[in-house]
Write a structure and sequence with these properties.
The protein has helices spanning about 5-20, 40-60, 85-95, 105-115, 120, 155-170, 180-195, 225-245, 265-275, 300-310, 325-340, 345-365, 380-385, 470-475; strands at about 25-30, 65-70, 75, 100-105, 125-130, 145-150, 170-180, 200-205, 255-260, 285, 315-320, 390, 395, 420-425, 445-450, 500-505, 510. The chain has about 525 residues and is an alpha/beta fold. Helix 8 (about 225-245) packs across helix 9 (about 265-275) and helix 9 packs across helix 10.
């Protein structure tokens, strides 16, 4: 009889674990549909990119001999709403012993998924989100297992707002917000930024995107419901009325900057309401990019016309991953080959989320192979907190202030990357806007009027090139008359501002003169 010591037993267990593949199951909460049930292409692309990343990781044997799987049975479509069905789906995922849940898309959905007293965190399951950008998710104590690959509005909104204010020089601001987590979070950032730049907020109103008591759609279903449209318009009118009553204001809102903090469908509704107002604003800045759809009915046509009319001067910001890299080009090429179209900007962040998870899993496998796939994955949240990789969207790390986040210090990590890059878009609704065959307002009516600088760009250098293929293939007009270099453009209000040369690195905002 041979008696093995503890060390030999550990080696044997490790060998047995590593000698066969363990299926690492993931769960996914999809954002492929809007609350109204209409398709959300950006959410569909995020799920497609997630599946593409899983295939790439398995093919490259990054976690060999283990494989990552995302069974269809563990994919739940939330439609951007928080319901009992979502909670049941999360419980089912936890019961299936998934190592992480990805997706979410909407802030209110991710908030329910990742809360400290929620089903997933109780089971020690982290959440990786690529699309929920609200600052309400910045709090690590409230969301201890949340890791985002997208930016936080708490970082980017102040930068964008300050740039817009310096570029167009409004005399005041009016704020309209939805009452959900995304709307309230954005409103708080807007309000603080206005105080910082010394711009008075002269009007404010809020409305429900989804009824908080009944769960029924309100602002998020204006295109189909006259009652919902009138409900949001009443809030917009209240905001302008309070501006007119402001003691130090002369009742003229023509020089005001209108700020909208709401979901995409609700933002579209608020813009449609502007077509009913006699007063116009100098510009509109929103936390969301809109995608107005005309549809087939006469009512839809009427609503579409109102959106286009009210959106004059409308601006919003979108994610703009680093494009001039082999990794990004490879991702776009692979995505197009697999799915037949150019990926939405959000898709790249979804792709990176899987690689962030794989990086943490690989470290866990290396440190504790005997437990991997047998007794759970020890320290997975700490391993996620210390991730430091370069994905297709750029550098991803959750360290604060440029400092390393060490094992056991997940509570000190940010919930979003310490670096970001965005593009500012302006809707050009002059004349007759182009309408696609499916009734959608063509995104050729959007123009990139500025973007945060890429590494190596020369501030103010007319020859500083930006790869425009990403925008051209999506049907977007690239910056500055298509030249992809810095310069002037009569149509771009912000060319006189510093937005094109802003870069956030987790420590400070860099403004190039």
């Amino acid at each position: 009889v041979t008696v093995m010591g503890p060390g030999c037993f550990s080696i044997l267990v490790s060998f047995l674990v590593l000698s066969h593949a363990v299926e690492i199951k993931l769960g996914y909460v999809s954002a492929g549909l809007y609350p109204s049930g209409s398709p959300a292409p950006w959410g569909e692309d995020m799920l497609s990119a997630t599946k593409l990343a899983i295939n790439r990781i398995n093919a490259a044997k990054i976690l060999h001999p283990h494989i990552i799987s995302l069974p269809d049975s563990l994919i739940f479509e939330a439609k951007g709403t928080v319901t009992g069905s979502l909670e049941r789906a999360l419980r089912m995922m936890a019961g299936n012993k998934v190592v992480a849940v990805l997706g979410g898309g909407w802030t209110r959905v991710v908030e329910a998924m990742a809360t400290v007293d929620g089903t997933l965190w109780d089971a020690g399951i982290p959440v990786l989100s690529a699309g929920a950008s609200s600052m309400t998710l910045d709090d690590r104590e409230s969301f201890p297992g949340l890791f985002r690959t997208c930016y936080s509005d708490g970082d980017v909104q102040p930068m964008v707002t300050q740039s817009v204010v310096s570029g167009i020089r409004p005399r005041s601001a009016i704020l309209v917000a939805s009452t959900d987590a995304f709307g309230k979070g954005g409103a708080a950032v807007f309000n603080k930024t206005l105080i910082d730049v010394g711009l008075p907020l002269v009007g404010y109103a809020e409305f429900d995107s989804i009824d908080r008591k009944t769960g029924e759609l309100r602002g998020d279903d204006c295109a189909k419901s006259t009652d919902n449209f009138e409900y949001v318009c009443e809030a917009v009118s209240r905001a302008f009325a309070s501006a007119a009553e402001y003691e130090s204001h002369d009742s003229n809102t023509d020089n005001a900057l209108l700020l909208l903090s709401a979901t995409g469908p609700s933002t579209q509704c608020a813009l449609a309401c502007l077509s009913n107002l006699s007063n116009s604003t100098k510009a509109v800045l929103s936390t969301e990019i809109i995608h107005p759809t005309m549809g087939d009915s006469e009512k839809s046509h009427e609503f579409f016309d109102r959106v286009v009319t009210g959106a004059e001067g409308y601006m919003g910001y979108i994610p703009s991953p680093y494009q001039a890299t082999e990794k990004f080009a490879g991702f776009v090429s692979d995505f197009k080959a697999k799915f037949g179209h150019h990926p939405d900007p959000w898709a790249a962040y979804a792709y990176d989320a899987v690689f962030v998870l794989a990086s943490a899993l690989k470290r866990s496998l290396r440190e504790t192979p005997e437990f991997f796939g047998t007794f759970g994955i020890p320290g997975i949240v700490d391993h996620l907190a210390s991730v430091d990789i370069y994905g297709v969207t750029g550098h991803i790390t959750y360290a604060k202030g440029g400092e390393k986040t060490t094992k056991g210090k997940a509570k000190n990590a940010k919930t979003s990357p310490s670096e970001l890059r965005v593009a500012l878009m302006r809707l050009r609704s002059y004349g007759n806007p182009k309408i696609d065959a499916d009734g959608t307002l063509s995104e050729k009516n959007f123009r990139v009027v500025g973007m945060t600088a890429e590494e190596g760009e020369n501030c103010g250098n007319q020859e500083a090139k930006i790869d425009c293929s990403h925008y051209v293939e999506m049907g977007l007009q690239p910056p500055v008359d298509g030249s992809c270099s810095t310069g002037s453009d009569a149509d771009a209000l912000l060319c006189s501002s510093n937005f094109m040369h802003l870069h956030y690195d987790g420590v400070r905002d860099l403004v190039c003169s």
